[in-house]
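Table S7 (text form). Paired inputs.
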Amino acid sequence: MELQHKVILLLLLLFHLLLVSAQTDSRDYSGLTSLTQSWTNKPQSWVGTDPCGSNWDGIRCTSSRITQLKLPGLNLGGQLSSAIQSLTELDTLDLSYNPGLTGKIPPEIGNLKKLKSLALVGCGFSGPIPDSIGSLKQLTFLALNSNKFSGNIPRSLGNLSNINWLDLAENQLEGPIPVSDDQGRPGLDLLLEAQHFHMGSNKLTGTIPSKLFNSSMKLEHVLFDSNQLQGTIPSSISLVSTLEVMRFDRNKLSGGLPLNFKNLGKLSELYLAHNNFNSSLPDLTGMNSLTYVDLSNNSFNSSDIPSWVSSLPELTTAILGDNLLSGTLNLSNGYSNNLQLINLVDNSITALQPNKVPNFQLILANNPICLENGVSQLSYCKVPQVIPAYSTPPNNCSPASCSSNQISSPNCKCSFPYTGLLISRALSFSNYSNTSYYKDLEQTLLDTFHKQNVPVDSVSLSNPFRNSTSDNFQLTLDVFPSQTDRFNTTGVLTIAFLLSNQIYKPPEFFSPYIFKGDAYGFYGGEPGSKSSNTGIIVGVVVAVSVLVVLALLAGIYAIRQKRNARRSSELNPFVNWEQNKNSGTAPQLKGARWFSFEELKKYTNNFSESNTVGSGGYGKVYQGVLASGELVAIKRAAQESMQGAVEFKTEIELLSRVHHKNLVGLVGFCYEKGEQMLVYEYIANGTVMDSLSGKSGIWMDWVRRLKVALGAARGLAYLHELANPPIIHRDIKSSNILLDNHLNAKVADFGLSKLLVDSERGHVTTQVKGTMGYLDPEYYMTQQLTEKSDVYSFGVLMLELVTARRPIEQGKYIVREVMRVMDTSKDLYNLHSILDQTIIKATRPKGLEKFVLLAMRCVKEYAADRPTMAEVVKEIENIIGHAGLNPNSESATTSETYEEASGVNVQHPYGDEDFSYSGVFPSTRVEPQ
């Protein structure tokens, strides 16, 4: 009995100690519990009832009150509830890079009166931005960019008198830019402490209010690019003497620059491209801080190239292409040593004095001077090349050979890096071959991480890319851990916080920037709860030890068995398919046949050149005749483009799931003797791309194009809605749509396809792959793949059907070109200049306008604004029905040539291009690395 009393007293003492040692205010713990009760993927360190005393990851406290909630990059899921108002002492809230956080921002967030920093970058929040945020008077940093916020910019933000950073970019905000008015309502013009207005990539309309700018402001970055603003740039902007970066490109602005524009002596980067400016080319003489100027794709006119192009001392880049400039370009002037590029493509330059190649890059392609004999081959008459590849080189070591998912760091250590996209919104250089820029960026990143005591071994930059839609420049950033092969939660959220809150300061040539972090799935070294009872821990350790001993013998046996099975599977991943050696069939594949190498060698006449019907980066396609007499197309992978064995097996299993008349059928496969081959049904009339280009000789009238679109749409709708689980194709394009004997469309090439399982809640987070020109910009930026990514690609295909133009041609993007000329108030929507003349020459194509409108809905910037493929099918059926045709009838049974159908020899604008595909299977795809 005495022993029992002692045990009870000991328990009471321990309980008392636990209560005394608790350091978290009960109100904060209760509020935090309510806020996060429905969240998924919470940090493993969140154990116990004492966040402050137990050092929960992402939580910082002062005097028992939670003051900082920093949880960026942890792949959290759920919603931000009204319980956030319970954390009344909060001064920092950062939930960035958690796309699983969705829903609306509760208005109760306005009760956090001590909040100084609010960062929700790259989440999935939607709905209006709450007016109540305007009551957070102490707020200095507000970053709501890269979400799905809609509605107007709240006027109440004008009450944030201490705000320094205001970023609302990459949302769906609309309406005018709010400024204060005579009724006492606030506006953005009252933000006199703000240095950053980042409002690009929204849907803002109206004019730029003159009242928006005044001489008391401290603005450094004004970014309103990619909106729908009209009118002129107000002269009041010249009052902001602190301005360094200005972006009003990709709007509908007109007129010219204000006369006092040259007063902006600190202006470094100026972006005004893709507007309707129609004045004389502005005189920027004396603006000696300018480094980067882009005035392209307007109607600026000048009879001479202005002298400021050569006289500005810091200028690296002048992009003046696609304007109305004419006359002579004088190279005799002394040009700055900093000058890297002058781009005058698509103007009317007639002469060069003296006629020599300068020591900087000069581009005069599509000017009259480049049409002269012997001139077109000069370097300045050629279309600019793509950005050269770059990847941080090893630091005087040999890259390590790493296991799956691990990457060799610049210091040649295998580890799991934290990754994301580092994006410059105003890059001040154009010489991408000069690696010193990248090295400076790498060093400043490393210095910042080390200064903040983050356990970082090294950083790597790769995949430089300039987005033609936004003109932003981006790099893939890999941050490698030190001392161990992976980061713990604290390491990830610290790195993410330094980037989301702009604590990292890049070199001037890369500023301003944003970071978009990826989900990290390799956590290690997670701390335990410090408030755990020691006796419980000892007991657990003892129990676990006993279990370990008991399980050891069974574990050894299981490991040996698993190792043997793995070895067998690695040698042949198909061992579990119960292959029938006699018939060559695999019953689990619903008829997909297992061919031997010798069989396919025989069917293709020893893979002879005469049987070759297509080729590309993947290898070659051969026509074969099976013993039954059936024609097949055999896709034989080249050695350098082979997939892993498991990936090859996965693709075969995926292809065997789908059976639809508008999908190319898989007949079988071969996996032996180091070969990977897929055997498909033979599709006689090649690709849609071949027919549109004139290469196949098949006449594609308007009706046939409609039915091609309908067939391809039906095939895609089947993949999205009837396949179980749904399948995202990921590489829809004209070279992946084949035409059979009746010109019925069949979707082909599932090499990049992805299954959408229930656990992925509508999207697959995956490395970006696809074909440039067809690639969904939202998928590219977020790495979240959805069925709507296929819808975007299909919209580009629809525009290709009506224009017969490639998606990207001579640097011009078909989606943007259609947007530029389209006017729904005019005949054929003013698309005469861009439509394929062969379909409008004879009669007016019925339903073309509705077809184009549907295509433009498919290529909306945000996936939520696009229709589903089922809706696309229904609308195309309606278009065909209203044209008096039967959407369910077979296409024409003959393949007329251009000459037979039209009676004339049609010279197609793309007839001389070098297409890699010449047969029945799609050409190679181009994938961003």
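Next pair, protein 2 of 2.
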Amino acid sequence: MSASLSLSASKEDLLAALIQAENRIQQLESALAQAPAAQTSASAGTDAQLAEQRSFYETILAELPVEIVVLDEAQRYLYANPHAVADPAARQWLLGHTLTDYCTQYGHPLAYAEQRQAKFTQALGNQQSISWIEETPSEDGARYHQRNFKVILHADGSLRMMLGYGLDVTERYLAEEKLRQSELQLLEQQEFANQVLDTNPSMIYVRDATGRFTFQNRGMKQLRALGERLEDYDQSYPQASIQAQERQIYAAAESYVRDTREEIVSEDPFTLPSGEVLYFQTVRRPIERPDGSVEVLAVSTNITALKRIQETLQRSEKQYRDLMHYAQALICTHDLNGNVLSVNPALATLLNRPAEAIVGRSLAATMPAEDQDGFAEYLQQIITNQEVTGLQRILPDGSTELRYVHYRNYLVQETNHAPYVLSHAHDITERILAEKEMKRARYEAEATARARENFLANMSHEIRTPMNGILGYANLLAKSQLSPIQQQQLNVIRSSGQHLLAVLNDVLDMAKITSGKLELDQTAFNLCDSMGQAVQPLALQAAEKGLAFYATPLRLSCPLPWVVGDQYRINQILINLVANAVKFTKQGSITVKGLLLAETDSQLTVQFSVADTGIGIPEDKKAHIFEDFTQAYTDTTRNYGGTGLGLSISRALVAQMGGTLHLESELGKGSTFAFTLSLPRAPLSVPVERPKNTDTTRLAGKRVLLVEDNEINRDVARLFLEDWGVQVDEAADGNLAVALFKHYTYDVVLMDIQMPGMNGLETTAHLRRHPDPRRAATPILALTANAFRSDNEQYLAAGMNDCLAKPFEEEDLFQKLEALLNTPPPAPLYDLTHLRELSRGREAFVAKIIRSFLTNIPVSLEELRVAAEAGLWPKAAELLHHIKPNLLSLGIAGAEEPLQQLERLRQASNPNPAEAEQLRAIVLSLIAHIEQVLQALPHEVTEQDSQSIH
């Protein structure tokens, strides 16, 4: 029987047999319990039968390759077969005990018992069977058992027992586990492959013969999603019909691959819902399935960007061809030897030759002969700098007229290609000719301006010179005893002279304004006091006419009216306006007001207004009243006098100062002129002007050299000077002045500028070269009939100490002379401090430098004098640049400023006559100054030699 219950029996058959045996035992036990006591003899036979059956079943359970146990309701073991507990003693001990008791008794882990008891409890709670896989440690590795427990109940529902069995499923479990791991690895590999395909920028898919997608990566899904949106539109929608046609093209290509089993490559369009068209390069190849069917693998790469680039390149190439053939720009290419590689029609037309006749020729052949020598230098520049911009002259074939082109050329270097030059140029001949015409016109305008300036300077000289005599004699005559009639006649002479001088000043001011040479001083002054003093004489004139004169001084609204500006010009504006008011008002009043409009820490904004009750200005004349030489009425000059320049000058001065000038007037009711200026505040520590010294006896005993070619002006100046006790020597020209200066010592020299032969600048240069340094430094006062500030700067740069404009008042001459004669002694001619610092106390080094200077500088000075007198200004500039470090190292006083003024010699290659004269005078004066240093320096070397001897 044991053989019939072999190991091949299934666990289900074993379980059925167990249950059948248990049921049979239960039936027998029940029958035995119901038998009467009288049948004791019969029961004995039944017990024997039950014992036989129990033995039979236990034998079967012992032979089964299954662990079988039976437990009661307290989880105590009622039965365990040898497969459950191999040791008979342990198996016998287990009966009546729990698994926890067993583990404690035999030293097994209690966790094993706790896990089993939890399962028992779960089965009891559910009153059903429970099954699980349990891992049991073993010497040859872990073993796996499938545990099953079944709850067996009595008929009344109470627990009878729990039947449990366990099968060793290690081999099956390990095989299933290996299968699961293989499946997981396969899934991971498939997931990795899908990720790789999804991240691939190409669209990848597989389709069968029915058009069904058997595979598609993420890119393909996204593209399909874009395309399928078109299916929502009506079929009349343009993109929907276009994509339907495109799908037919795709299907035809796949059908061809399935039929021919060949791989094909195509360029496929794909229209988006927006209408944008994408382009894909698609590779299609066949895939044969085991069942013989053929699917198509397609890999599509988006080449839209490349397509756009190709289209752009094609457009660019077309544009380049169009540019070469149709552009007005002059375009060509040439190699690094200058030979033409290509030329566009515009340049060929300019050169008057067909393009094929130009290609291969040297680009230099298109230039005039005198320009071809510089072509090699251009080639070197383009190779070195890779970009060259410039202007080139072109001589077309068969033409004598040059053309001018402005070019920008680039060196083009490409891999595996010979470098070449791309030239892009424009014909600017018309512009060049226009610029030449403009330069010629500008030169003529400048020449005209210079001629006008020279005319004004000559006019100023010619008028001021006799005016100096007229007013000078008038001043002298006023000191004598005159009858009342003679005094009245003298006043007329002086008034007429002053009027003529005022007219001349107005004309000169307008000339300065129109030529842009009107310069403004920037000095600190009290604006209120200055304006009050300026209009005071006009207030007296108004009173003499019987006019009321009202004034509101600026200080009422501005307690600190100290500003920085041109005091004389601001006064001139107010004087012009008040003088006009007095002139054009016969009765009534004149009101002058000064008002502070605004102020900051650094600036004052003020307004001055002049109101009168005069004749007024018609409405149609207001727009023209400020024009040059314009007055409101044609008979104004006859009735009132004047040049018509006062308002023009005032408006120009206000504008140059950044202000505004306004007019309000009504015919017959008077006019109001008001100007507003914003002026910088003066520093708080403004120097107080000292009262002028009028004690003429301070000049008594001084000796003056008067250099003046005009006899009348000499007489006037001499009479002024002699009246002050000054000894005067007169020279009618520069040569006589130089001769007198050599023989006599003077305290001051009065020098006229415009003289025949040797002018005042040249004479000054000769005087400054006197061998005696102290006599060479004699103060020189320029007596000038010119009124331009640049003239005064020229005189000061030439070595003069101060300037006095003709005609001059006696008091002005005195103040100038008094200032010059009381000037502190001149600074030393040189200062060796810096040189000694460089030498670090080595006097031998200092002496060496001085001897070198004494030896070499005279030669350079003579060359400089020759260059200046000959007008060789580039040579003069070179010599000055050469000697400048020597002059500065020796600390030669007064050399730095002339050197700065002469720096423009570097650009003055062709100065006009006036500029040349100014440059020559400055150079000669500098030479004279250095010659004085040369005379004094030997003393330094002698002193050092004597010190070395001692």
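The chain has six domains: 11-165, 200-302, 309-427, 521-680, 696-821, 833-949.
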